[in-house]
């Protein structure tokens, strides 16, 4: 860890690539502008290693704010891939709590890996902190989990949903980090934009009633231990930086990509007609063919695109369900086929309980 | 069909990436005796994520525009080594894979040059996401009329930055290199058609070329679950004719053949355009223009999708007198 420069405050914004990119950027800029309007120096930047962003991949923005420091000190802070630690992490999509896997060399990282002891983990979610803690690995230092109540906001590369998320987060920051941005600072910034009163009201609403806090003690949470995979350094690499290849049907063990999904497919094997379309059309080769001809998703590799559910010809046989309905994760996922084989009755009940929570796919086919 | 995967899971492409789907099916069709050469682009950066890979085939990264030379070099080396008895004589497929920028723009001269090397056997596959997608969606010559890219945003002064029509790559390769035995267009939304075309290309020998149109949820702006549907719509609206030219014989395939025979009607291009946010700024007039261009291709061209000369070749006025 580097020596901390006094008076410097670092916030990271963790979001899903492309879907939430404009939201993350506008929020990062908003925090930096608000801090500057309040007389501080501040800047925001995107994590280099996450560029080029891919649909669904966890990605990061950073904001550095300093009271009294020079622009040069801030520039130096930003001249690196990412800070060693942050004072607050803002998670725009609660399903990212289940792990961050950006590149192979990092493995599946805990969402709060960079959070300083006693820092703040601010999550946009419709769940309360006690529910969210079930998805977050334990730490050996305390932190505060803050929920800014709200829906997941998903746009895409060319669109931004101005649905109040930026204002809600700013309101939450004013509530839990008044020493960084006060409510007056937030109001001043929002007042400088279009539709000022509407924006200020949204922030006020979050400030007054939409924030829930919970102190998390050391050891609370999932028992997941973060171990980055051992990948060779340049001295160990083969000549010409050759990479050892895979064997046929062997998935890349170092990079699963399973943390890129906010929905997952759940299969009703009772209804499956073994047509093989899901297997055929999955761009990520996720389905294993079982000896009796069913198709079982290796969820650690699934990116949650929803294509399998879309192409399945039998209604409600593959449904896409919010990741937050499942307490597995961090690289270990339910084996759906195995669960079904073990007890078809229990599986059927479980599947039916998920149906009302499923994203409706292929309405056209009904 | 082979169940074995030679391009397997564990790559960093987007949710619903059709280019990844193309590679999966090309690898399946080619089988284990294959060397793949990939140019810089999404299919390089996302598939070899820091010293790991999703390939179970020997795969070589070549520079962005280097596909043609690397492929000829590899095919020639294999041939020489086999003739000298240094390698057992067997069939090894050589496949060069490049994006639209790496193939139709930056790498065009090398790809074209490679396709004149009739002594060697290889396939060049151009996966076309209609942008330079890896570097965050920039315009290429393959970007369609009107599409938003980071280089062609819609502004207040100039509403449509990309006003030029998309280049006709498969046609150029077929017509410009008369000795090549196989050229085809394909897409991931019809993987069986793609599979068959790859097998044909590899079996026929000599240089061959396949151009796939790959919906890209990131750059085109749609929910990834619709990837295949968008691909199918490109064919159903007539925008993307599926064809193959085998030993000089042209044949429309799949849905495109059924459109040509009158069995099914082309859908309006609006059904395709309106599903993608990269076209969100287009007006009805713009869409009508695209429709007219597509109609022209189907109704007037000598061969739909391939030969833009019109059926009624204009006779020079001066020659009449
Ligand atoms: C000579 C050169 N110029 C620029 C780059 C930067 N670059 C890396 S990937 C890429 C885009 C390639 O686009 P395309 O071939 O269409 O493939 P896609 O990214 O769409 O898969 C560019 C421009 C490079 N690697 N080499
Ligand atoms: S959602 Fe379905 S099609 Fe998409 S990656 Fe997961 S298993 Fe494959
Ligand atoms: S697409 Fe649906 S019906 Fe067909 S094999 Fe997959 S789950 Fe079964
Ligand atoms: S940007 Fe497009 S081509 Fe590149 S990985 Fe994503 S979907 Fe695939």
Automatic annotation (TrEMBL), chain A:
Coiled coil regions in record: none
Mention any Pfam family matching this sequence: Fer4_21
Q: Which UniProt keywords apply?
A: 4Fe-4S, Electron transport, Iron, Iron-sulfur, Metal-binding, Oxidoreductase, Repeat, Transport
Q: Enumerate the InterPro entries for this protein.
A: 4Fe4S_Fe-S-bd, 4Fe4S_Fe_S_CS, PorD_KorD, Pyrv_flavodox_OxRed_cen
Q: Looking at the keywords, is Endoplasmic reticulum present?
A: no
Q: Where is the 4Fe-4S ferredoxin-type domain?
A: 263-292, 293-323
Q: Which domain of life is it from?
A: Archaea
Q: Which SUPFAM superfamilies match?
A: 4Fe-4S ferredoxins
Cofactor dependence is on: [4Fe-4S] cluster
Provide the protein name. Oxalate oxidoreductase subunit delta
Q: Which organism was this protein described from?
A: Vulcanisaeta souniana JCM 11219
Lineage of the organism: Archaea, Thermoproteota, Thermoprotei, Thermoproteales, Thermoproteaceae
């Amino acid at each position: 860890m580097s020596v901390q420069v006094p008076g410097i405050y670092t916030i990271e914004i963790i979001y899903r690539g492309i879907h939430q990119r404009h939201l993350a950027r506008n929020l990062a800029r908003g925090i930096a502008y608000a801090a500057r309007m309040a007389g501080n120096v501040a800047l925001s930047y995107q994590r280099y290693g996450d560029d080029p962003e891919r649909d669904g991949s966890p990605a990061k923005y950073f904001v550095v704010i300093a009271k009294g420091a020079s622009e040069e000190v801030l520039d130096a802070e930003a001249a690196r891939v990412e800070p060693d630690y942050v004072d607050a992490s803002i998670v725009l999509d609660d399903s990212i709590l289940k792990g961050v896997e950006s590149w192979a060399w990092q493995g599946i990282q805990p969402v709060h890996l960079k959070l300083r002891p006693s820092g703040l983990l601010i999550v946009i979610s419709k769940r309360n902190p006690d529910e969210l803690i079930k998805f977050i690995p334990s730490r050996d230092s305390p932190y505060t989990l803050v929920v800014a109540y709200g829906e997941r906001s998903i746009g895409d590369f060319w669109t931004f949903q101005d649905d109040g998320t930026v204002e809600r987060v700013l309101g939450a920051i004013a509530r839990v980090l008044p020493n960084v941005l006060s409510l007056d600072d937030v109001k001043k910034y929002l007042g400088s934009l279009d539709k000022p009163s509407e924006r200020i009201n949204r922030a006020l609403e979050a400030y007054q009633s939409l924030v829930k806090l919970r102190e998390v003690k050391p050891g609370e949470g999932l028992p997941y231990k973060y171990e980055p995979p051992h990948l060779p350094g340049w001295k160990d690499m083969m000549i010409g930086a050759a990479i050892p290849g895979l064997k046929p049907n062997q998935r890349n063990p170092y990079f699963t990509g399973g943390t890129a999904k906010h929905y997952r497919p759940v299969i009703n094997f009772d209804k499956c007609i073994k047509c093989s379309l899901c297997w055929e059309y999955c761009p990520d080769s996720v389905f294993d063919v079982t000896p009796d001809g069913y198709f079982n998703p290796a969820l650690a590799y699934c990116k949650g695109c929803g294509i399998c559910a879309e192409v399945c010809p039998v209604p409600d046989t593959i449904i896409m369900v919010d990741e937050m309905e499942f307490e597995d994760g961090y690289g270990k996922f339910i084996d759906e086929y195995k669960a079904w084989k073990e007890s078809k009755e229990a599986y059927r009940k479980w599947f039916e309980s998920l149906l009302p929570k499923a994203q409706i796919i292929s309405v056209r086919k009904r | 069909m082979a169940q074995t995967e030679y391009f397997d899971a564990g790559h960093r492409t987007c949710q619903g990436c059709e280019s990844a789907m193309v590679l999966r099916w090309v690898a399946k069709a080619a089988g284990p005796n294959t060397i793949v050469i990939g140019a810089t682009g999404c299919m390089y950066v996302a598939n070899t994520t820091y010293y790991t890979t999703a390939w179970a085939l020997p795969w070589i990264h070549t520079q962005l525009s280097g596909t043609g030379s690397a492929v000829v070099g590899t095919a020639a080396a294999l041939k020489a080594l086999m003739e000298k008895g240094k390698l057992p004589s067997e069939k090894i497929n050589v496949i060069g894979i490049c994006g639209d920028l790496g193939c139709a723009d930056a790498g065009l001269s090398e790809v074209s040059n490679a396709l004149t090397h009739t002594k060697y056997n290889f396939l060049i596959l151009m996966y076309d996401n209609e942008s330079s997608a890896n570097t965050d969606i920039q315009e290429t010559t393959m970007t369609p009329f009107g599409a938003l890219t980071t280089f062609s945003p819609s502004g207040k002064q100039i509403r449509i930055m990309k006003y030029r029509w998309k280049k006709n790559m498969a046609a150029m390769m077929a017509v410009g290199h008369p000795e090549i035995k196989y050229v085809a267009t394909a897409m991931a939304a019809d993987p069986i058609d793609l599979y068959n075309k790859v097998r044909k290309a590899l079996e026929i020998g000599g240089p061959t070329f396949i151009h796939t149109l790959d919906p890209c949820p990131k750059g085109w702006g749609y929910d990834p679950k619709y990837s295949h549907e968008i691909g199918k719509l490109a064919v159903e609206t007539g925008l993307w004719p599926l064809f193959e030219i085998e030993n000089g014989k042209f044949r429309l395939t799949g849905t495109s053949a059924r459109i040509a025979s009158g069995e099914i009607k082309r859908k309006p291009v609006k059904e395709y355009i309106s599903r993608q946010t990269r076209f969100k700024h287009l007006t009805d007039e713009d869409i009508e223009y695209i429709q007219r261009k597509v109609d022209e291709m189907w109704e007037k061209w000598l061969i739909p999708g391939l030969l833009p000369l019109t059926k009624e070749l204009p006779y020079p006025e001066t020659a009449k007198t």
